[in-house]
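Fold it.
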Amino acid sequence: GSDRVAGHEANVLTVKPRDSLRFGYRLWSDKASGLLLRADVLNERSEVLETSAFSEVTIGIKPQTDSVTVPMRRLDGYRIVRPSLTATRLDAEGWAMRQLVPGFREVSCVKRPMESPAAGNEEAAAEPVLQTIFSDGLTYVSVFIEPFNPQRHLRSMRTAVGATQTLMRRHGDWWVTVVGDVPPATLLMFANGLERKK
């Protein structure tokens, strides 16, 4: 169909999943330029879980990069953190997915610090965490694996904020956190598919 968003005529497209492993989408794109003006994430009953949209946008003007870059250079009162990421593979770290979630494929795997030490407190640095990212082409699921720590990892839990679901639980000597804009059952499939090989 068609609609108006931020004062612009838009084409409306509904993307319906063929299975229950992912959410649907309703997308509004500007008729003249194709710019995405609004996006809704929909659950299995077509209820809106999350929406993002322009409230005001001007299309077809010369880019004004200084309006974005100049404020970004004002860093007084901020501490710059540049985490070091090390590219790796799930199997190289001793893990495998017994069964991939249908439609998803691995797109990235890195070792990364999850906590940065406070100035002068080097003990606050945690051991690197393994992060593997899977995608179905529209959304992403991150699987974080770290050594189990009884002081930090108190109990398994599931949480949801808008469309973003999180599942945290123990996996032997490891703690696994799975995060993504997918239904809870999909996160469970990722967690259950994870296998320690060495």
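Residues 5 and 149 are 48 Å apart (CA to CA).
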